[in-house]
């Protein structure tokens, strides 16, 4: 029970990799806050993990791209639990667009809001409280697009590159008691993969050393490492978890 007695918040926690991290944290004894835009999905998962693992699970509907919603989420968490030990900035968004010239201001701002602005606000507020409470762990879920950007995901790649900068910057701001690390994910078989073409799936055999995409639960080992005392000497680090993408 690596996380017994801990309280963990996962944004985008109702599905995909977020859902797998919520379940893993609960299995290791942590009470969990499941935060996502669709409250009904959070409710369903909260009921399931509470029943299966006997932990407390709080569902919260919120939009990570809205500054005020981030503030409300933080207040809700501390009103309910009075502390937070783990924050995982997992919520992400990478909409398709016809061409770079057709990227609208609305799409660009939405991608930056979800992938960069929201994580900044949550980390700033929660990190300061963690320092005052004696410590904690923050994990940012980044992407291979941050350092190997593809033309069909440039706003997303730019936002994730910024998130990597926040990982290192916040580790300096909140050390030595709060550790901030990141995971740079490659292609994973989450909901977004349902829109992939057969060509995209086939291309992984040439672009990834493991010749496949990751399953959502394959993030669990790395997430538990960074969010537990197993990584007690790691901060400001970003781990590649991309199947050897080239």
Describe this protein's structure.
The chain has helices at residues 16-27, 39-53, 67-81, 105-133, 154-174, 198-207, 220-227, and strands spanning 7-11, 31-36, 57-61, 86-89, 136-143, 178-185, 238-241. It has 246 residues and is of the alpha/beta class. It has a single domain, classed as Rossmann fold, CATH 3.40.50. Strand 5, helix 5 (154-174) and strand 6 (178-185) form a beta-alpha-beta unit. The model has no long low-confidence stretch (mean pLDDT 94).
Helix/strand layout:
Elements: E1 7-11, H1 16-27, E2 31-36, H2 39-53, E3 57-61, H3 67-81, E4 86-89, H4 105-133, E5 136-143, H5 154-174, E6 178-185, H6 198-207, H7 220-227, E7 238-241
Parallel strand pairs: 1-2, 1-4, 2-3, 4-5, 5-6, 6-7
Question: Quick summary of this structure?
Answer:
It contains seven helices and seven strands. The protein has 246 residues and is of the alpha/beta class. The chain has a single domain, classed as NAD(P)-binding Rossmann-like Domain (Rossmann fold, 3-Layer(aba) Sandwich).
> What share of residues is helical?
40-55%
β-strand amount: 15-25%
Label the overall shape. Answer: globular
What's the CATH H-level superfamily name?
NAD(P)-binding Rossmann-like Domain
Q: Quick check: average pLDDT?
A: 94
Instruction: List the strand order in the largest sheet.
Output: 3-2-1-4-5-6-7
* Rg (C-alpha, Å): 17 Å
User: What can be said about the biggest beta sheet?
Assistant: 7 strands, parallel
Low-confidence regions: none
> How do the SSEs run, as a string of H and E?
EHEHEHEHEHEHHE
């Amino acid at each position: 029970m690596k996380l017994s007695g801990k309280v963990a918040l996962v944004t985008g926690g109702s599905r995909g990799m977020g859902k797998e991290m919520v379940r893993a944290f609960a299995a290791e004894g942590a009470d969990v806050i499941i935060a996502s835009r669709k409250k009904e999905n959070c409710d369903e998962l909260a009921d399931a993990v509470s029943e299966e693992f006997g932990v407390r699970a709080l569902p919260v509907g919120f939009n990570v791209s809205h500054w005020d919603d981030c503030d409300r989420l933080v207040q809700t968490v501390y009103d309910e639990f009075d502390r937070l030990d783990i924050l995982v900035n997992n919520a992400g968004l990478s909409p398709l667009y016809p061409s770079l010239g057709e990227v609208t201001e609305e799409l660009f701002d939405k991608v930056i809001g979800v992938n960069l602005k929201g994580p900044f606000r949550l980390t700033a507020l929660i990190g300061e409280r963690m320092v005052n409470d004696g410590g904690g762990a923050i994990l940012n879920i980044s992407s291979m697009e941050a350092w190997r950007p593809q033309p069909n995901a440039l706003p997303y790649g730019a936002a994730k590159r910024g998130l990597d900068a926040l990982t290192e910057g916040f580790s300096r701001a909140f050390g030595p008691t709060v550790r901030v690390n990141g995971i740079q994910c490659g292609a994973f078989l989450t909901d977004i993969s349902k829109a992939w073409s057969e060509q995209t799936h086939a291309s992984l055999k040439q672009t990834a050393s493991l010749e496949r995409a990751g399953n959502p639960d394959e993030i669990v080992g790395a997430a538990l490492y960074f969010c537990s005392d197993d990584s007690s000497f790691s901060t400001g680090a970003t781990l590649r978890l991309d199947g050897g993408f080239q």
